[in-house]
Amino acid sequence: MCEIFSRNQLFWGKDNQDFLLSKHVAVFGLGGVGGFCAEALARAGIGELTIIDFDIVSQSNINRQLVAMYSTVGQSKTKLFETRLKDINPNIKLNVIDDFYSGDLNLSNVDYVADAIDTMRSKIELLETCVKHNIPVISSMGAGNRIDPEKLYISDISEIENKNAPFISNIIYQLKKRGIENGIAVVASREKPFVREKISSTEKITTKSGENIEFTKITPSSTPFVASCAGIFMASYIVRNFLKEYKS
After folding, report:
1. What CATH number has the domain bearing residue 122?
2. What is this structure's pTM?
3. What domain count does the chain have?
């Protein structure tokens, strides 16, 4: 397996590569952002990934998501990524959760969380859980309704520049009600969000545990450029934090 990660090692060395092998990252959401994040983490040599998503591939995913093609429409995103990530690194340890996240997942053995959830309730529950249990997390907040990846940046949630964007302002408000105002890394965008038509629908989901969940789904505009870069930003941030933690 050394040859797979030989180019990584030319940058950060074999000891660091071995250190990444001991790390466990959970990626919530395998869409345009989370899919690219999960794949970059696997290619970096993270030894264990937990991937969580309840969705199947639709034709509207094809413009921006790694596993979305005509041949995969209707298939489970988690199952597709299970095959893809093991094809990248056959030795990777994968925990595959094909379910809707509703706050009931034990994260005690996770070293880092990548939050690419686009459902507000689940996103808030996950971020609150991470803060309460001191689990490092980076959250995507600004990939939809945008075209320019050069406007992406990473900051603490308290330093987001465009807090007035509805999705972001609602998350910040709900977290503040829970006593959380900082301590969460985010990938955000300086670009003003834009969509030609506001589309919303009611979605009903039954989790594997039998819980019935109903929520309003807002359909954003999405381009092939921003979500992928946001996912790469997240993976790079996580790996760089692991390498910073490493003591030679």
Report:
1. 3.40.50.720
2. 0.96
3. 1
